[in-house]
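Figure 2 data, in text form.
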Amino acid sequence: MRRLTGALLIALVATGPVEARQLRGGCGTTREKLAEQLHLHRLSVKQRRQYLLSRTGAATAPRAVARDLGEIAILDDSEGVVARLNEFNLDRRTLVFTPAAASATRYRFSLLEESYDAGAALAGSRLEGLEDDDTRLIDLKFPFSFYGATYRQVYVNSDGNLTFTASDTAISERSLGRMAAGPPRVAALFRDLDPSMSREGVTVLSAADRLVVSWVAVPEYREVGLGPMQTFQIRLQADGRIEFAYAGINTSSAVVGIAPGRLAGATSVVTFLQGGSQEYSGTVAERFGRANEIDVVTAAQKFYTTHEDAYDYLVFFNSLGIDAGDSAVSYELTVRNQDRGFGDVPVDVGAQFGSPRRLRAVLNLGPLSQFPDDPNQLVPSRQLSRDTPVTILAHEAGHLFLAYASVRDPLDPEARPMLGYQGAHWAFTFNSEASLAEGNRIRDRWETEPATAPRFTTIGVTEGFSPLDQYLMGFRAQEEVPGTFLVTNATVSKDRHPQLNVNFDGQRRDIALEEVIRAEGRRTPDHTVAQCRFRFAFILIAAAGTEPSAQDLQKLDRFRREFETYYHKAASQRAWAETTLRRALRVSIFPAGGVLAGGSMPASVTLERPAEANLIVDLRALNGYASIPASATIPAGATRTSFTITGLRAGVDEIVATPSDSRYETVRARVQVAGSAAALRLVVRSGDKQIATPGAPLAAPVVFAVVDENGLPYPGVRVRASVASGGTVTPAVGITGEDGTVSFQWTPGAGPLQQLTATPDGAPPASAVTVSALGRPYVVAEGVVNAASYRAGISPGSLATIFGVNLAAGRPRPRVSPGRSPWQVWRSQSMGSPRP
């Protein structure tokens, strides 16, 4: 079972059976959910009208409207912002997708009588060992055309779907958005299914004219017990037709349809039961469910159609009574985060939410009605944890970085003993110093009363971001974090929510921050340059055609204003939350950048839309480590102006950019002035390990970045490049741009292995970085990688070192798959990868 890496947070204790993996004891969000939702706002006006007509019979389809009332953005619930109740109605029928052109670039659909082929299901070979969230790669005995491409292989995924080019085994929600954003897909019943719990399982009948994949009495996943059984099949015909045949469906939600993948083309949400004659060149699907829910990705996209990319967080409430999830008060989705050293993995899917570069997280706070009017009053469902509306907001905001870090258990390296509920909160048994990310402040009674039983008592809950929290969030230095402890073998569950005055026993394990760093790595960027000012947009989703009540607006505005004060206090005055609605003012070095002392770097200020009049931006360097002009002006009708930052002496400065027009945000960015190039290093961004043809430029340039220990880019740095074994590189000396990168076009010479070396000016020789290219003559024309040819030119050991491949004698010769390099093929076939 995989660890949930997303951060769906505050939840009530479930009072009934938990349904499917999505709930996980009351929480439904995982990190993977970020790529799951659909850009429903891409539907044409006509398609939206058809969609609403099919549901409501309304003569017109209202356009989703976003507007601001004071500092609160109002978004109506139309155009897919709310996924409506729609019970599954295709059972005992056959849904057919027919290519509308020979190349299958467009499709029509029709609904026929039941044609489930029980004989084909019985005659098919069972996919033995197919587990929950598993996949198998199947060869097709005929070329199959799908959205303009032709395939000879297809992945059979456990969860009721087939995909081309890549499998999909994520444990996140099986949503319309994930279907459209993932690989090309054929989904008869996109739902969390568990073939390992089925007696019949999933069978495959592969013939010269068709492929039949049957899910026979396959249950939905359950944490405990057996889920409802589903029986259906997908049939791919040699003539390009796709057929879904249903013979026993009992599901509360699912997605059905076909998609070209990667959000290609327009997306059409249809009603298959009503049929239609239209042709579709993009995703065509229907979303079934027994409950309404907020589609936060669509809501974010709608927000950005009328607001600029000026926010780190979007905070959604609704006046519709729609919960954030079953038994869940609220949740957070990490959208964009490249920081490291806090236990989570980097992610950047902001573009799917409509944010080109800024958005870091989305918070769904559910219905506004579940909270008291007073932002500092206890929330009824969270009284034991002493949560208020503002602590819940801070809790969710903190999950951008918390709580995934943990020391390791020497007896179980996979365990994370500091983590508790869902693996995304501090454990009840961890002395978290009453963190907003759960855990407790725990008193060890033996410190004053040795041998007292029970030994431990919880004496504080939900007080603020602890020193450890602040280090992980980038607000506090390592040396400012005191040691703490964990109680192992405790007599209480580590998965409990915080609660005062709970007594328990166990063994104390002292924890120093150094041990956390050994497990998770250095917090990068550290407190000296990490972002500590965040902008939040508060958004209320209301019913289309209605005005939010004055009471709701006043209530939410109180939450907004009080949250600014509380967040600053909870972070020990080391971080700030700004909650006003503003237009975007982008400073190129935001949130931080670097420059050499005595050197200079280019910077810019950019708007999303042309300035209506001359916009003067006041510029200040607060700490005296850098020098900048007093101001920069963006002329009327323009969107950008440039200026120069000069490094004066080593240290960290803070740059403040204040626009003359208060409708724009004020931006603060940090500048690390490095004392010398010895503090910098070169990293490869792209272009390494390409296939080379002697005398011809490589297909892609080689791109390097100059960074420091915090990963900050350094514009304006000269980088020298040289090549070995002949060949040429252009230019010989490049200068890093605003993003700290520099690009070289490399034309390799003859020979099996070519290398290019780059070094920043003024840096020690040890900072040089070498990239490699493999000579094309060592890949024979018919696409077979010949190990003997490689060995004739260079030793297998050298190739293994440079390319990570294994060319030991006696290995079979792998065929090169389309889009896969020779060393990828060798790696998969020589180093034990389960699937090529």
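Caption note: The first helix runs from residue 20 to 23.
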